[in-house]
Amino acid sequence: MERTLPFRWDPEKRTLWLIDQRQLPQREEWLPVKSAAEAARAIKDMVVRGAPAIGVTAAYGMVLAQMAGEDLDEAERLLADSRPTAVNLFHALERMRPHKGYLEASLREARAIWREVEETELTISKNGARVLKGQVLTHCNTGPIATGGYGTALGAIIEAHRQGRISHVWVDETRPYLQGARLTAWELQKAGVPATLISDNMAGHFMKQGEVDQVIVGVDRMALNGDFANKIGTYSLAVLAHHHGVSFYPALPFSSVDPRLERGADIPIEERSAAEVTSIRGVPIAPAGFPARHPAFDVTPHQLITGIITEKGIIYPPFDEGLRNALAEG
Length: 330
Ligand code: MRU
What we know:
Elements (H helix, E strand, L loop, with lengths): L6 E4 L4 E5 L10 E4 L2 H9 L6 H17 L4 H9 L6 H10 L6 H27 L4 E5 L5 H4 L5 H10 L3 E7 L6 H13 L3 E4 L4 H6 L5 E4 L3 E2 L5 E4 L2 H11 L2 E4 L24 H4 E2 L2 E2 L12 E4 L7 E3 L2 E3 L3 H11 L1
Parallel strand pairs: 4-5, 4-7, 5-6, 7-10
Antiparallel strand pairs: 1-2, 2-3, 8-9, 9-13, 11-12, 14-15
This protein binds 5-S-methyl-1-O-phosphono-5-thio-D-ribulose.
């Protein structure tokens, strides 16, 4: 399958090239990143987004910090402060910490983090494909551009389509940042998967009509009881799915599980600029100065989940036991 990945590493130029996801799908523009400070800014500004992709970017950010002669503790702090919700970022920084000051070892670790994204997502895609059939609905963007690999929920959708298991995909546009309309629609089109774009408030209607068989979404951080944070709007979808008897699956690598958190209420939720709600790509849609809120993620309680799709298989309730056992396996 043709994939566009969110980054390219250029060792000769000591540069991480990031495709500017804010411009997609209209323009494919690659931006050079040469320091941890630039990497942190690119994450904050959504040039690169998606939990696994920001983890890999942070790892290379620490490599670049050494190449650029930045203060390494300050570099780590800047990267850690870029976005608070996806735990992959913090797991990547933790893995890079013992290699601080050792360029070759840092580079090896960053490559390993990226390679693991690819390997785990091949397995997640295959595991997820087993439960998908008929008409599937997804939210936000969880494909290769969000991860650097094959994708999580979207990887499973593309694999299920390859196996002839699914007939159609509903793509939530995902207000306010429109990751569904801009990125998921683009990736599904490239993969040749039949799909239809809907605005987020149409999901309940199509479920009621019996036109959605499963919902599958990505994860930014999952607590040990299975509660998880994902793109704002995921919780509403889970409630709707529950009401209509539609199965609901989060798909994630274990690098998105936070073993320090017992429950989802403790997950930090990023609050982004209200301007991202009151305007679309710089064009105002609300009266000037009108107040708005933009929590970028919400938390879905584990009671609304049918099964958790991971690289270690599909975990069914009781989730706390399943997640703890899988973590203990290593
Ligand atoms: O704000 P974003 O675009 O970074 O949010 C992305 C999501 O919510 C994804 O569903 C999640 O990161 C999983 S990506 C495989």
